[in-house]
Records
---
Amino acid sequence: MTKRKRSLSGIKPTGSPHLGNYLGMIQPAIELQEDYDAFYFVADYHALTTVKDPVKMRRLVYELTSYFLAFGLDPERAAFFRQSDIPEVTELTWVLSCVTHMGLLERAHAYKAARDRGEQKEINHGVFTYPVLMASDILIYDSDVVPVGADQIQHLEMTRDIAQKFNGGFDGKFLKLPEAKVRKDVATVPGTDGRKMSKSYDNLIEPLAAPKKLRKQVMQIETDSTPLDEPKNPDTCTVVDLYKLVADGDEVAQMEKNYRAGGYGYGHAKQELFETLESRFAPYREKYESIREDQEYLEKILARGADRVRPIVEEVMDRVRRASGIGRV
Ligand code: ADP
Ligand code: TRP
């Protein structure tokens, strides 16, 4: 039997996932559990750069675990675990820090954005070193592919760069170079204002939020002011762009026809988008609600996931320690 390739990804626990998270990362990652050796984790170390409340942190970890299970992650096939259950990633972060130039980190989008917002004094070292921790997350599992949205491509390039610096510096192929796996149609899902959907922009559609809230978010999608009776252009409308990502081909063709014919308002289109989202996501919401409080079950899934990945970590760290001359032989 040929060895399966490994798919690895992580996501910060930050509450209800938005449609960009789901279509850009969660759904593609879960689908890869069919053909890949799948490792996915809750990035609580990364979340620590902003979350400073232990009760909230644990709740967010359980919530994110419940979302993945509700969306179809199969713990029999994929390993789902908590980043901090593998503390060796912080050891590897240090080792990689020693081959990472300051200039590389100064060019990171997230750090640059925080600095440009004038937050220089408040930026903690964790934010600055975030890409090294992420490189460590990926490299410590000998990952082949990393399913993510387009905004993470820079981090993947940095990861490859850092791995090459390590391999070059210590003269060997110790760390495997991973590839980003970005799905073109959902690389950048638009938010209600047409920009990239992101927690930072307050333009979210959260499909597992209560139906009333979800409907309100859909109704907030910005459109132009073409009157109801007049024909409209489906090619320049965020409602249609989003509908294309969740409806089937016939439904999209019908909506485009309605736009061109006129007598069909943006309100009608938004209602159809809402109904499509609701019928697709309501079963996931129900499943999520049924498991989110079951701490014992969720801890069991996370512990089992960590146990599954630990042998790989030991193997890779052994390579890293030998290559760099640290640790006991
Ligand atoms: P946010 O930008 O809202 O803070 P995160 O950085 O937590 O989102 O992203 C988590 C995952 O979801 C990443 O893999 C990211 O690439 C993906 N993602 C986030 N927003 C989008 C989007 N609008 N379109 C596609 N993928 C996205
Ligand atoms: N930086 C990613 C995000 O903001 C989360 C993340 C942390 C990650 N470590 C990772 C993603 C390793 C892929 C692989 O969404």
---
Amino acid sequence: MAALQPVRGTHDLLPDDFRRHRAVSDAAAETALRYGYEQIATPIFEFSAVFNRTLGDTSDIVTKEMYSFDDRGGDNITLRPENTAGVCRAFMSNGLAQQAPVRHFYAGPMFRYERPQKGRLRQFHQFGIELIGAPQAQGDIEVIACGAAIMETLGLKDRVTLELNTLGDSASRDAYRAALVAYFQDHLAALSDESKDRLGRNPLRILDSKDEGDRRIVAGAPSFDEYLNTESQEFFAAVREGLETLGIAYALNPKLVRGLDYYCHTAFEFTTTELGAQAAVLAGGRYDGLMEMMGGPATPGVGWAAGIERLAMLADSPAPPPGIVAIVPLGEAAERRALQLAETLRRDGLRVDWAFSGAMKKRMKRADKVGATHAVILGDEELVRGVAQVKDMAQGGQSEVALDGLGPALKAAQAARATG
Ligand code: ATP
Ligand code: MG
């Protein structure tokens, strides 16, 4: 254990990272608000049963990736690996069924014990939306449209592809599952151990296998189309028609099955070719069976989650923060006056930096380093006259400004710079 290093697969978001991160989640939040979604936050840890029941015993997450532990009271707790189960738990705990359909969005850290690599972390962040209590295809169309709008806001519209599939209703899935099992039984010897293991429990997941040998077998597997009943076909047709009406381009991907076991009907991902194996930036689908699996009343739901780190890697650099001014007091009296002056300027709405000690040269260097637009130089002589010397850090010019009225003057100078 290296106590001064972050845990493998976790990282610090230093100010530049955090600005990118915030730009993504702020853009997503603004868009989701326009679609009528409101933010909620569920606890970062839940009873393990919340995830064990919903994600399914054979999912990668439950079998390999969860951070679970017994707490001091003996309860088995899991750091949330995703937030859909938590949001559904909250929907039931808080008796929100009367308000259905409800539209929620969330943003925050998730935890999975994975092999860390670029775009794959053990603590990562997701932004996601959930539409709960709407069985209609309009719901699927709306959540996808909201995702597409966010991609557009982030300038990623032409760099991501919306992949779309249907997993059908449970009757269709049962029929398809039986067909898949029969097919994979015939190719059992050539399957990877992991896929052999999945065959008995969740054969659909074999379609998602990243193993080369498996993929060759999967290429010849029966296709879901042939097993979709009329109802499922009609539902999928309605979703596609809605997307076409809205001009949202998509590519059908019959192999798209999603990592989690509770999905039905619509499954989708926005993918990129720019992040190697970490292709999915946003993924989701319909999960009508989830609440029942958790022991609640049957309640339909549809939603998605996006990886904030992956989006932040793709999106343009956000605008720098608004300009900061540096206070440079010289002399004991000025140093004392600076305390008040900094406070006044901050209350006026300016960003203020202030090194608490050091010679003028050192402080001017720092003003430069923090990217100050202006340095407010305050000497004992200026203090007596109630003025300060204001240096324009970019242009080098210097002028005398009265201390009362300094805030508005600096703001005006910054505004002029920003527009000029
Ligand atoms: P992958 O196939 O990349 O493992 P997944 O199917 O496990 O993804 P989801 O559970 O659908 O992913 O999560 C939604 C989104 O969250 C993903 O599309 C991705 O952008 C992001 N994400 C998932 N796992 C990680 C991780 N370990 N690190 C960073 N981002 C992640
Ligand atoms: Mg995964």
---
Amino acid sequence: MSQTPSAPEADRSQGTDFIRTRINQDNLSRRFEGRVHTRFPPEPNGYLHIGHAKSICLNFGLAKEYGGKCNLRFDDTNPVKEDTEYVDSIKQDVQWLGFQWEGEPHYASDYFDRLYECAERLIIMGKAYVDELSADQIREYRGTLTRPGTPSPWRERPAEESLALFRRMKAGEFEDGKYVLRAKIDMASPNVVMRDPTIYRIRHAEHHRTGSKWCIYPMYDFTHCLSDSFEGITHSICTLEFENNRELYDWVLDTLGVYHSQQIEFARLNLTYTVLSKRKLIQLVKEGYVRGWDDPRMPTICGLRRRGYTPEAIRDFCSRIGVARAADSVVHYSLLEFCCREHLNAVAPRCMAVLDPVKVTITNYPEGKTEEFEQPLHPEDESFGSRTVPFCRELYIERDDFREDPPKKYFRLAPGAEVRLRYAYYITCQEAVKDADGNIIELRCTYDPDSRGGSSPDGRKVKGTLHWVSARHAVPAEVRLYEQMFTTESDSDVEEGKTFLDYFNPESEKIVTAMAEPYLATLNAGSHVQFERIGYFCVDPDGTQEKPVFNRTVTLKDSWAKIEKKQ
Ligand code: ATP
Ligand code: MG
């Protein structure tokens, strides 16, 4: 089910959601002495996506709102999948979204020594033991929701023996999987997470930061709560799938008697027509479905950036969807597009480009003549300034702006019809020239010299206004037209025997050669621009001055308004 966006900004920042309510309560009771200290804890095993943006806006946003702090912490306990490439991209993306972490970034790997000490303490307290069951056996012994677990034969191993074995694990005496360290909690707990979870495992692998110093690595559930504790985090906000893990989170901190942060869960973001799982995103990249992590179709932050989304638009989106505890909230992609359009409308200059050109010859316009029209770059905001647009006898307009047999109320060009060329002149179509196959190759028109600037010479009304470019001055540009990456709204629509990849939309990228007005070739990579009547576009770094490349960020048509009405 789709989620309706919450009320406007003014109402949203007043502590009305459940997380802000809890923080307000904690501040009232002075539980954390009124401090608010959050963290954003990505695992550096992929690029950040729009789901992470929700978490970033929430964690950094809370810190800002409450005059608190927010740490950036890399949750880097799995050496096999992690890489500094990901670390760097994550830092860049958080900053691009407009947030700055407190001090230096933190790394769970910085705590490996302290975590190890904590593990030894648990062993000494009789709260952890070294187990010899294999991973499969551990799963088997764990039981199910309806059947209690069976204790491992090694559960009652004396503490000194576990300690000695644990030290030998650390010293590298055993191969991967030979032993694990498990917390000794309750094999009959109704919460399966509490049935003696594994807290350390052997992994002979190079770590991107600690190199070969360690061959045992702490598990997420053990690392996360203690990292929060070491950093003095007050509110540890995570997604709902960790709800059952909260009991373990609390157990570790209580058992060790250390500073205790409060874990709070919220619903993760799902978006229609895309996937927000790093595993699936990696697959799209590795198997060549897309150009890379920053392909403009990807829901990654770098993909959205290359597509032309702005930090303001993404923050607005995150603020509109709000935070809730309800599971499985799926948000319409068109809401994200709506937010993007809203912002680009204010910040993108307007220019003219013709995506599917057909030639127009103004038969009564002098052959060698060129005029220059000074046109504003934004219709409502003079601060954008203006640029000059050349005009001559040969122009291009959109093929779709001409109909031989126009339907009723068709105000664009047709035989005998008169239209306004934006900022230039009125023209009337006299003849459509065709090739041998009957395709229109040229429209022969006449212009009214008295309509210069696009204004009516005698008060006669012209309904249609077309965009155009001068054929002699136009710059050919590669324009990449993007559509939804998948043909199915949600993962749950995937039929049996198929995978999400079977729904990859082959039309999600269409490339055309457009004719652009010269000014467009002067824009730098990353610039936003509206092609009048067509949509918002962003200059791609692949392009050059001779052959610029534009990515379509979003069309001008708002499909969100329609969806909103239905809800
Ligand atoms: P994935 O399932 O894509 O691998 P993850 O949760 O494993 O995501 P992390 O790097 O661990 O990725 O995520 C960092 C933070 O971002 C976590 O606090 C996580 O809860 C949050 N997060 C990840 N995905 C989403 C999402 N779709 N919506 C909201 N928050 C998310
Ligand atoms: Mg994770």
---
Amino acid sequence: MMKCDVITLFPEIIRPVLAQSMLKRAGEKGLLDVRVHNLRDFTEDKHRTADDHPYGGGAGMVLKPEPIFRAVDAVRSQGEPVRLILTSPQGRLFTQPLAFEFSRETRRIVFICGRYEGVDERVREGLDLEEVSIGDYVLTGGELPALVMMDAAVRWVPGVLGDPESANEDSFSGALLDYPHYTRPATFRGLNIPDVLTSGNHEAIRDWRRKQALLNTLKKRPDLLNHPGRAEENRKPLKDLGKERGGKLS
Ligand code: ADE
């Protein structure tokens, strides 16, 4: 069971995504519990102001600290321990190991969605939070990143995917990209599926898939093969594959 809170100026970006497909099913099965909080509900002026101009001048608006602290206090006052995440392009990169870690987190994961030009720095200074980025590009806000992180994490919660092996076999779990998949029809616009997949020889199929995953990775993301901590385990299969293919690996 993964428990999350999303603090956002745009709850309507979050809610419809939670109401579809796997995230919806995870919610219905009691494996994902997400509470969405509108940051405006934690403002105190009559205009419900959540942002303001930056001190020192310059373009854009900055999210005010008070509503964010109040929203976090409100979540904390529910009594459960929390893990605070600020979505930000300045954060540590979100990758599969962190997705897995989130799926095993027993505290509520509270996503504070940044917006506009930034968040008042005292949010970082005054709250014990972790800053996480979903990639080296700048989005207009942290709502999509919060959804991306919940989606990537919930796949690892036991019972969310029909087949518990699915999460394991996919790209990146073994730091390799996935092997190619085919479904019916066996011939489509003159394109056939590989014979081995209909051979009934499970060992041969496993072998073929392992090699294809390696080739796929070599072709599309060779950087993954040299990942520290992975380079060693990839060395032998790569060498074998090279020998088998007469030195041709692409
Ligand atoms: N907010 C804006 N850009 C972001 C990114 N790349 N990751 C997380 N939060 C963000």
